[in-house]
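Worked Example 4.2. Consider the chain below.
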Amino acid sequence: MNDWIAIGALALVGLLIPFGMMAVSYLLRPSVPETSKRATYESGEVPTGGTRIRFNIQYYMVALLFLVFDIETVLLFPWAVVYQDALAAEEYGLVHALGPMLAFVFILLIGFAWAWRTGAVQWARTPEQVEAGADRS
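Applying the procedure from the previous section yields the following structure tokens:
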């Protein structure tokens, strides 16, 4: 059996299951066309204010930094597991085992220094910083 047939069958099943579930739920769900179902919240509370709310960009910056350094941790663990074996192997030396990871960590440290310098990791400003910022303007 050709490997591509198995991959195609798996892709077909992966598409048919979600679309089939959506089709069945569309056919079986109750249809109640009342206006309260179209409200922002179905809890009975009357929504107040607009839907456009300004969020602080700091939340997104912290989330992105968390993802970057979380991925760094995920990539460091497997390297740390095979580090001793790589040093013990005759075809690899210290530079081949340690060099790529040091380059990786160095690039991340440059990114962290940039984030620190631009204030992306600074969650809140102290009153002194607010005054200093007002003096510069």
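Residues 58-135 form one domain. The chain has four helices and no strands. Compare this with Example 4.1 before moving on.
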